[in-house]
Design brief:
- The chain is an alpha+beta fold and 200 residues long.
- The protein has 2 domains: 121 residues; 76 residues, Nucleotide Exchange Factor Grpe, Chain A, domain 2 (Roll), CATH 2.30.22.10.
- The chain contains 3 helices and 6 strands.
- The strands form 2 sheets. Strands 1-4-5 form a 3-stranded antiparallel sheet. Strands 2-6-3 form a 3-stranded mixed sheet, with no helix packed on it.
- α1 packs antiparallel against α2.
- The longest helix has 93 residues.
- The chain starts with a helix and ends with a helix.
Length: 200
């Protein structure tokens, strides 16, 4: 082999050796990139399926909640049907000339049944007269000077709670301290009454 040929072969061998190590990392990067893309596609598919399952769960839960409310309302209304029957009977009796006392007893029985049925459903009347005024349970319509301060003295409309939740507050009047102006007015009225009595 001549010297030029040896030099050429040596150059070709050196180029192959130089290209070999550079090609291997490029191949590894291509494999890793393909694997990463496949994994990303897998994660995306999983996320989309989880999202779809969650949307289905929300729709199913909303339907079940609506159904539960409908059933609860229906059960409560069914409790009131016997009272409705009694009221119809009372009206029929009044048209037939029933006595006032009989009608009153019929209405009282109907009222008692309605209260019992509502009690079975968890509804209770809010205590009022003689109780301390509670803004969570009572709504003050009047303040009555001279009565015990902060104590309910009269009820205008009953309030009700359902398992502790206020359905509507009771409308009440509340005692208030007697101020100087009210005391003077009361004294003047008392004096006028005394004078009128002495003249008589």
């Amino acid at each position: 082999m001549t010297a030029p040929e040896d030099v050429e072969k040596a150059a070709e061998g050196g180029a192959a050796e130089a290209a070999g190590p550079a090609a291997e990392p490029a191949d590894e990067l291509a494999v890793e990139l393909a694997a990463a893309r496949a994994q990303a596609a897998e994660y995306l598919d999983l996320a989309q399926r989880v999202q779809a399952d969650f949307e289905n769960f929300k729709r199913r839960t909303a339907r079940e909640r609506e159904r539960a409310v409908e059933v609860a309302v229906g059960d409560t209304l069914a409790l009131l049907l016997p009272a409705l029957d009694h009221l119809h009977l009372a009206l029929d009796a009044s048209a037939g000339g029933a006595r006032a006392g009989d009608l009153r007893r019929g209405v009282e029985l109907t009222l008692r049944q309605v209260e019992d049925d509502l009690g079975d459903a968890g509804v209770a009347a809010i205590p009022t007269v003689g109780e301390r005024f509670d803004p969570q349970l009572h709504e003050a319509m009047l303040r009555v000077p001279g009565e015990q301060d902060g104590v309910v003295v009269a009820e205008f409309r009953r309030g009700y709670v359902h398992h502790g939740r206020v359905l509507r507050p009771a409308l009440v009047s509340v005692g208030a301290p007697l101020d100087a102006g009210d005391a003077g007015d009361a004294g003047d009225a008392g004096t006028a009454g005394t004078e009128g009595g002495s003249e008589a």
